[in-house]
Design brief:
alpha+beta, Diaminopimelate Epimerase, Chain A, domain 1, two-stranded antiparallel ribbon, diaminopimelate epimerase activity, EC 5.1.1.7, isomerase, DAP_epimerase_DapF
């Protein structure tokens, strides 16, 4: 990704000098990462000295919005519980989400790199239940669980809960879609939300091809198009397999590059590129 390292360093310095409701951020241990262009900030909660009660929408929003070099799409707070590693996720505007596929991929990479998780396979606790993760062979794959609550909404659209609620809309020309405008219209459609029984609807515009699908996603919290949405990729692939009989594994072209969706005992598996943008691995105190 094209990020000015000087601006990013300045953002980090500003973050270290901030406090949110008396919680100093100078000792924050984190990694700014991206999964296919979906920018995620992984915070090592325990090593940062944060209490569980500190982690909420206000703190999440203030941390994310400190960065100006790049839009931070969301923040994943990593903590340790009896079951092992837990991820608590918020969108960049502070909206709490029970899951995020690309955040889980980034958090898995972070944890394996630091020995918190074995590379072969394990589970990460989320607010949508435990999720299978693996970095075997250097490739991070994470499970979203099975597609749930599947239903056809209209001739060209389907609903599926793929760890988050998704409306999949088939379009003939993906490049022509005004994702922000059309996505917002569907996301804030109260009658549609009531019919589906879900607020915070993600909207995935999908064009099918002979051997793959292409996707553009409107994401709540960001309230705009995101370069890649992991749960959206999973939900769209579920529709492609169920409705259009496209066999797994399914290649999915996002604006942030190609991702792959497969299926195994733990449900939909997503994989793609992951990279570090900035690492603050050693607690530092602002002078």
């Amino acid at each position: 990704m094209d990020v000015d390292p000087r601006v990013l360093a300045s953002d980090h310095d500003r973050l270290r000098r901030r406090a949110v409701r008396g919680v100093g951020l100078d000792g924050l241990v984190f990694a700014l990462m991206h999964g296919n262009g979906n920018v995620i900030l992984v915070v090592d909660t325990d090593r940062s000295g944060l209490e569980r009660s500190d982690v909420d929408s206000v703190l999440a929003k203030e941390i994310c919005q400190t960065f100006t070099a790049i839009r931070v799409d969301g923040i994943a707070f990593l903590s340790f519980v009896d079951a092992g590693v837990k991820m608590t996720y918020f969108e960049g505007d502070g909206l709490h989400s029970v899951m995020c596929g690309n955040a889980l991929r980034c958090l898995t990479r972070y944890c394996v790199d630091r020995g918190y998780l074995p590379a072969d396979q394990d589970f990460v606790a989320t607010d949508d239940g435990p999720k299978w993760v693996s970095a075997a062979g250097g490739e991070v794959r994470v499970a979203l669980g099975e597609g749930r609550e599947f239903q056809q909404v209209d001739a060209d659209r389907w609903f599926v809960f793929s760890a988050l609620p998704h409306l999949v809309v088939e379009v003939p020309d993906l490049a022509a879609v005004d994702v922000k405008r059309e996505g917002a219209t569907l996301r804030f459609d109260e009658k549609l939300a009531a019919h589906l029984g879900h607020q915070g609807l993600h909207v995935d515009f999908v064009q099918r091809h002979a051997d793959h699908i292409a996707i553009r996603t409107y994401e709540p919290g960001t309230e705009d198009e995101t370069l890649a949405c992991g749960t959206g990729v999973g939900g769209a692939a579920y529709v492609a397999n169920t409705v259009w009989q496209l066999p797994f594994p399914i290649r999915v072209q996002t604006r942030g590059g190609e991702m792959t969706v497969d299926h195994h005992d733990h449900g939909l598996l997503i994989s793609g590129t992951i990279a570090y943008l900035l690492t603050a691995d050693t607690p530092q105190r602002a002078g």
